[in-house]
């Protein structure tokens, strides 16, 4: 698919995330390539939220006590509210949410199959690391999109309180038994590897999306150099988060 | 435990649900027996909501498509919002929600173990029938309690949209294959039987609760005759609901 990522793009190569407006959704989505790419992003994000709901609800079953169970159920419910925002936007722009999410079901389910947590702590690390990588990625992309999509995505990416909960529980477990740290550090590396490999696969299969991210046509400096830098920033943030958990990445 | 269910009770035997006020929480809860009984009701209800969240999230995994999955996740999330209301009230009256819910974990988990759905349709029927019986019971009790508890319980019992969804799906499945109806009718009877047997067990083990419901001390006509009538009404409503599903009860 031949696309022009944004007719309103300034086309400069500023290396840091820019917040300069490229226009609203109505203006930018007149370009079919831009529209298709943003629909892909919203679809992937929506299914990601629905999937996060399911995973957190699953983790709630493994919770060692009622208070932890309720805390996870609360986070699952927050993820669902985020899904609802995306669902409503897709309907608003005349799309069937199910159709838009469909291409991302298989890659995400593959990721979950490859990284099924074997216990409560692995589940916590997975949710923490996985959500954080996804959040970093979408935030980086969001600031380069039209105003309406950016505002929606930043709202959806708002904190669900999960991070601090996971950090507290994992640090405590490592304090109680330091061997837990080694096992979870390995687990964190495996998660990062699988996440990158599935993300790569999705981008390779979705023309409009890859054109938006790395194509000749770019939005606000989205060229290969910038994408490389973006992945470096995401990897650095991952390293810091693993350290916050008390784990070597 | 010797209790006086309510010092403010009028003590009459009106057979229908009365909405006459017996006072607010502060007045009624001065009686330790009343307070203990209401805490039991709120604890059972709170764990019921948390458990409904888990069960619906589990059913979402069995859903035949993305739209159904999202619909169940939406209902699970609504149940969690209800849990949150009860949690916040328990904290407000100086109680630890975990402590108050604890006595009801085992009976509810027993019920769920005895009635694990083997497929998507059994899950739908269970959620529909189970929620409805619980809702009928709590609504009957709520109108006899202090104003604050009554208002909270009626809010928590508000419709989550589950009923219509389950009715639509089950009726459609029976239309497609009438043998499904026979199997699900048997399933509905088993659910009602298990629900009654667990409810009986809980009431027998909780002195304050049984005093409130059937004890010598009673709130607004809660004597044995009235309790019998209440169970008749709940059973009749169950029969009607099963008919709405296209099932003989």
UniProtKB/TrEMBL annotation, chains A, B:
The protein's matches in Pfam families, at most eight in alphabetical order, are given as: MiaE_2
InterPro entries reported in the protein's UniProt record: Ferritin-like, Ferritin-like_SF, Ferritin_actino
Domain Ferritin-like span(s) in chain numbering:
34-216
Which top-level group of life is the source organism from?
Bacteria
What protein am I looking at? Rubrerythrin
Originating organism:
Kitasatospora atroaurantiaca
């Amino acid at each position: 698919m031949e696309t022009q990522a944004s007719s309103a793009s300034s086309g400069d190569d500023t290396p840091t995330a820019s917040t300069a407006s490229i226009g609203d959704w109505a203006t930018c989505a007149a370009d079919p390539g831009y529209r298709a790419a943003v629909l892909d992003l919203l679809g992937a994000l929506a299914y990601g939220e629905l999937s996060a709901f399911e995973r957190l609800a699953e983790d709630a079953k493994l919770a060692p006590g009622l208070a932890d169970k309720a805390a996870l159920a609360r986070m699952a419910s927050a993820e669902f509210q985020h899904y609802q925002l995306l669902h409503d936007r897709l309907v608003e722009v005349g799309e069937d949410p199910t159709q838009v999410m469909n291409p991302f079901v298989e890659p995400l389910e593959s990721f979950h199959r490859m990284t099924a947590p074997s216990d409560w702590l692995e589940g916590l690390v997975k949710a923490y690391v996985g959500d954080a990588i996804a959040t970093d990625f979408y935030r980086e992309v969001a600031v380069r999109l039209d105003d309406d999509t950016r505002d929606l995505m930043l709202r959806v990416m708002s904190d669900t309180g999960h991070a601090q909960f996971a950090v507290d529980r994992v640090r405590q477990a490592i304090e109680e038994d330091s061997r837990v740290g080694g096992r979870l550090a390995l687990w964190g590396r495996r998660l990062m590897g699988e996440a990158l490999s599935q993300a790569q696969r999705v981008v390779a299969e979705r023309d409009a999306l890859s054109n938006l991210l790395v194509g000749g046509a770019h939005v606000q400096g989205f060229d290969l150099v910038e994408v490389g830098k973006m992945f470096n920033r995401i990897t650095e943030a991952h390293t810091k988060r693993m350290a916050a958990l008390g784990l070597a990445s």
